[in-house]
Amino acid sequence: MQVTSMHFKATAGVKLRNANLQAALKRLQGNFVRGRAERVAELGNYEEIRTAAAAIRDRALANLDLYLAEFERNATARGAVVHWAETREDVNRIVCGIARQHGVKKAVKSKSMVTEECELNDALEAAGIEVVETDLGEYILQLAKEPPSHIVAPVVHKTRDEVSDLFEAKHGTPRKTDIAALTREARERLRSHFLTADMGISGANFVVAETGSTLIVTNEGNGRMVTTLPRVHVAITGIEKVVPTLEDVATLMRLLPAHGTGQTISNYISVTTGVKGEGDRDGPAHFHVILLDGGRSGLLGGDLQPMLRCIRCGACMNHCPVYQSVGGHAYGWVYPGPMGSVLTPSYVGLENAPDLPNAATLCNQCGVVCPVKIPLPDLMRKLREQQFERGLKPWPERLGLALWAWAARRPAIYAMMTALGARFLAKMGGACKLVHHLPLGGGWTDGRDLPAPEGRTFRELYSERKQKH
């Protein structure tokens, strides 16, 4: 997926004016937001579970090398082949090599954000291999030739009418608007691909060190067909997804469905361990696991390490007022919302995503709902500091901050300037006491009015009150 994060401001403006997108984004308030709140209330000891989940992820990250080595040892003992990929290009090279080795002509995929990072579909198609997305949302996007806009509900940006039009155009069938009819049409199109594919490609929500297993969480049966029907299964995930034990997975799974889709449990939790054994009726004859670094190790031991706790539930974006307004495509890469505002600059370079750390109000909705307690506003603020230190902020902003810092170190001048500013804005507010256009800050008032101050600074008001008492 090509990085276009440097165009966030321009793209966000377009998305705000897209009536279909705005209608589609309202669905986030349904199961995703209300459902999460209801499921969390049912847990009772939610904060205790949340604290335990964060500790599990921190323990795995603190000993990442040891748990990854343990995973490789146990996975290999059960017949899997573990590959290490430093870059996204390495992933594509490894997968294409596996496909050549086994004479693969067709691959079916379940939803995987890491393969979106790698642009794996393009690499396989360039190697002459047919690739079919089998998650309903990803299948729709493959037909539309669009990237996902959400990590859990990749097609949340599309309305039902848009999907109906797409199926009519691509399938050549009469237009349908009933959801059940549309999903049945997709199933009928996909069924033959499951039965004729040589390779299944999946992600992994977690990899389990003690058993050498990979685990996927899905609400559609496609995940199990992708991992069991083809003779070759390739699971691709990031190195940070390792957890020590299945017991740890059980703790994390108390939180993931609730935060991801507002469910108590997910429809399917599939644990894959090794290859098909003698007497087994299904399962792959060849199982490969690819563990991608892709910039992840660069976060270890630094200020941004807590971001690696992420279990990809999507709750941060569901509750983010910015994401709710512009959708996922505005963020310009695989990971949107608050998580993307940290991950994208970390993985593709801060210079390629300069707007994302600032694409937040810092209201901390994301931090409050994160099931593993990632302090997302703090991490975005650290990235903002890095931007300033590296001179990546626009020169007007750097000049403004420099002038503010100069004045702030001179209390008398600062007091005079703030007093003049308060009186000037009060006059601009007029009788309605609203500022319709803010000088040098039009971005704040292009779409809203700001309440005007009454004309005196806090110090003046405080001094006056103190004298009265």
Keywords, separated by commas or semicolons:
11% strand, alpha/beta, 469 residues, four-stranded mixed beta sheet, six-stranded parallel beta sheet, globular
Secondary structure topology:
Elements: H1 8-16, H2 19-25, H3 30-43, H4 46-62, H5 64-77, E1 80-85, H6 88-101, E2 106-109, H7 113-118, H8 120-126, E3 130-133, H9 136-144, H10 160-171, H11 179-196, E4 199-202, E5 206-208, E6 213-218, H12 222-228, E7 232-238, E8 242-243, H13 246-253, H14 256-261, E9 268-272, E10 286-292, H15 315-318, H16 321-326, H17 337-348, H18 365-369, H19 376-389, H20 395-408, H21 411-429, E11 434-435, H22 442-445, E12 450-451, H23 458-468
Parallel strand pairs: 1-10, 2-3, 2-4, 4-7, 5-8, 7-10
Antiparallel strand pairs: 5-6, 6-9, 11-12
Helix pairs in contact: 17-19
